[in-house]
Amino acid sequence: MKALVKERAEPGLWLTDVPEPAVGADDVLVRVRRTGICGTDLHIRAWDGWAQQSIRTPLIVGHEFAGEVVEIGRNVTDVTVGDLVSGEGHLVCGKCRNCLAGRRHMCRATVGLGVGRDGAFAEYVVLPATNIWVHRVPVDPDVAAIFDPFGNAVHTALSFPLVGEDVLITGAGPIGLMAAAVATHAGARHVMITDVSEDRLDLARKIGVSLALDVSQATIADGQRMLGLREGFDVGLEMSGHPSAMRDMLANMTHGGKIAMLGLPSQEFPIDWARLVTSMITIKGVYGREIFETWYSMSVLLEGGLDLSPVITGRYGFRDFEAAFADAASGRSGKIILDWSN
């Protein structure tokens, strides 16, 4: 089968032929139809410091996918050949304290699809049936392919109550855009999103945010005044990983405000801890999705009319992966989809 492989410890990816994966008794074999390009895939392709420490070559990359079940293991009973499925890319041990308590998203032994084991940028992928999400209601395959990052957005956005609240989102990348769509759909009063890319801010406006603010031209405090806020934002969703974004968010929260932080900083940085204490602000770190409660929420949100189509800005055949990755790395796009159906 064809697959995108990190063959060597150097920049680049290679489209090559590899053996089809074997199917174990508890596994599901999926014929991949669509995949989404993630920031993690960009790091691996660029072979940056993180990738050099985290990746062992050769490796089939990719973890965002949707496809059709073509074979199930003999012990699998709740997945059927022909099902349209997506996959939870965090494979957990099932034995640690958190796993046994039903908190699988907190497993300390998590292995990442396309990072710690061969991934989904291929014509076929195998996963344990416990990592398979069956789409029981109709969903566009492009949207099904981005359930993984959509789950990050939902997990972050629904960390705190949003109805009637004023929400600040720092970072209008694809996950920030999806979080903005969720917050708006879930009943926030105002949703303000910040970035320095006018292309991505335009995408946010199509989603329907209250204010898309270019922070190279105006401050978050300016945004507060534009929205008529008197006491600051109630909920903050930090999606960028930039130190200045987190510090500016803290400076513009109301007393008792709550922040969910998904953005992953590249290094340690200081914040104003005195402000955090005296303003009684809560900060919650978010990683991945709650397995599978977040997935249920995602499906229900889509059933309820949430539209993610503006977030998907590029579609390429898998043989045009170089152009697709260049688009995803441009800093101007939303989600980029690779089509594996032909």
Structure description:
The chain has 342 residues and is of the alpha/beta class. The chain folds into two domains: 2-146 and 308-339, Alpha-Beta Complex (Quinone Oxidoreductase, Chain A, domain 1); 153-285, NAD(P)-binding Rossmann-like Domain (Rossmann fold). The chain contains twelve helices and 18 strands. The strands form four sheets. Strands 3, 5, 6, 9, 10, 17 and 18 form a seven-stranded mixed beta sheet that branches. Strands 13-12-11-14-15-16 form a six-stranded parallel beta sheet, with helices on both faces. Helix 12 links the parallel strand 17 (312-317) and strand 18 (335-339). Helix 5 packs across helix 6 (174-185), helix 5 (147-157) packs across helix 11 and helix 6 runs parallel beside helix 7. It starts with a strand and ends with a strand.
Mean pLDDT: 97
**Portion in beta strands:** 25-35%
How many DSSP-defined strands?
18
What is the CATH T-level topology of the largest domain? Quinone Oxidoreductase, Chain A, domain 1
Order of helices and strands: EEEHHEEEEHEEEHHEHEHEHEHEHEHEHE
Helix content: 25-40%
Number of domain modules: 2
| Alpha-carbon distance between the two ends | 12 Å
Report on the biggest sheet: 7 strands, mixed
CATH homologous superfamily placement of the largest domain: Medium-chain alcohol dehydrogenases, catalytic domain
Regarding CATH, which class of the largest domain? Alpha Beta
> What is the C-alpha radius of gyration, as a whole number of Å?
20 Å
Q: Estimate the global geometry from the Cα principal axes.
A: globular
Structural class: alpha/beta
The parts where pLDDT drops under 50 for at least 5 residues are: none
| CATH architectural arrangement of the largest domain | Alpha-Beta Complex
